[in-house]
Amino acid sequence: MQSIPFAIGSLMMSGALLVASSQPAHSQDFVSLGAAGTAAYDRGAGSGLSAVTLSEKTNCVAHWLEWYLGYEQAHTSQTLLSQLPDDLGSEQSREIATAWFMHVKDLYVKRDDNDAEMVSALARIRPALKKQVQTAVAGDEKLLTGITEVLGTCKTPK
Description:
Blueprint: E1 2-3, H1 6-13, H2 27-45, E2 49-50, H3 54-73, H4 78-83, H5 90-112, H6 116-137, H7 141-153
Parallel strand pairs: 1-2
Helix pairs in contact: 1-7, 2-7, 3-5, 3-6, 6-7
């Protein structure tokens, strides 16, 4: 089992990628955006990569939490959502986010007898990731494909 390259997490956290679209995407643009997001998700899921270290697993928690919470708060286009894999839909993404959260919380508790470090790590990661998800679902293909590829590699907690 290979480890998810730390560079993916760093890339997703980079403030330099936060370039908001000046105009909202049109419906047809969301179809293309959804196709690109689906391809990236499938590429991540089929890559053979998975989170191995606790840091990588924490990054998976943050990505799934912010995907689930972020795209709903951003009032994401239903056209875009209909083009994405079922795992990225509301119910499934909530279930995957919850599974990752519980898995990683258990690992922190086993290691530290509490989850304080996990809470702290998520507090550091999530604000920038929240903005990235909102920008991605508003039409930023580069961000969307980066995020959905990470979600694909983080498809199932192990």
